[in-house]
Amino acid sequence: MNSTYEDKEPSGLSILWVAVRASLVFIIVCGLIYPLVSTGAAQLLFPSQANGSLLENAAGEVTGSELIGQPFTSQEYFQGRVSSIEYNGAGSGSNNFAPSNPALLERTKASIDEWKKNNPDVVIDKLPLALITNSGSGLDPHITPESAAVQIPRISKLTGVAQEQLEALVTKHTEGRDLGLFGDKRVNVLKLNLALTELRAK
């Protein structure tokens, strides 16, 4: 029996055209529409976070991000954690030295010696471990409230700000556990130092 319908194999050219059209659709949707929509939504709903959670000083100048630790060379300010990547926000990581590694022992000893030199009024046994060790990412912008508290005598002596005022400043900038359950209490060093700068300017 003859059939009026003849099965036709698609030509190579038609298959190529289908592939090209599909690629163009995905390029437009995934490479143009989706990024524009997600970027626009982020700018609308979370503008600060979308732009890097940047912090400004009293003059309106950007001084850094609240998400990335940075060095403070002046001993008149609170110091953050040791950085194994020189506070380079372009990458993160740790040397992952074993406790018995001579390089780790040497670095830790140097950190302790530096601390003793800059904080002669603090008993070394009271030194929080976080101030002489780095975080896993090397970018942690936080220290513990205890790590901030032990620096108060030095800062008070160098700046003339009363220790009671510095203690109140640390308490004010102490963040609680996430959802009240996860993590530890912490202090953002950059935020704390910006508040200290404002306090000293009064």
Describe the structure.
The chain is mostly helical and 202 residues long. The protein has two domains: 36 residues; 148 residues, no CATH class. It is built from seven helices and five strands, in the order ααββαβαααββα. A three-stranded antiparallel beta sheet has the order 3-5-4.
Give the topology.
Elements: H1 12-45, H2 47-50, E1 54-56, E2 62-65, H3 102-118, E3 142-143, H4 145-149, H5 152-159, H6 163-172, E4 174-175, E5 186-188, H7 189-201
Antiparallel strand pairs: 1-2, 3-5, 4-5
**Class by SSE composition:** mainly alpha
User: How are the strands ordered across the major sheet?
Assistant: 3-5-4
Q: Helices and strands, in N-to-C order?
A: HHEEHEHHHEEH
Please provide the count of β strands: 5
Q: Return Rg in Å.
A: 27 Å
The low-confidence runs, each spanning 5 or more residues with pLDDT under 50, are none
Overall mean pLDDT stands at: 83
Task: Tell me the distance between the termini.
Answer: 101 Å
Q: Give the helix level as a range of percent.
A: 40-55%
Largest sheet composition:
3 strands, antiparallel
| C-alpha geometry | elongated
Question: Hey, roughly how much beta strand do the residues contain?
Answer: 5-15%
**How many helices does DSSP assign?**
7
What count of structural domains?
A: 2
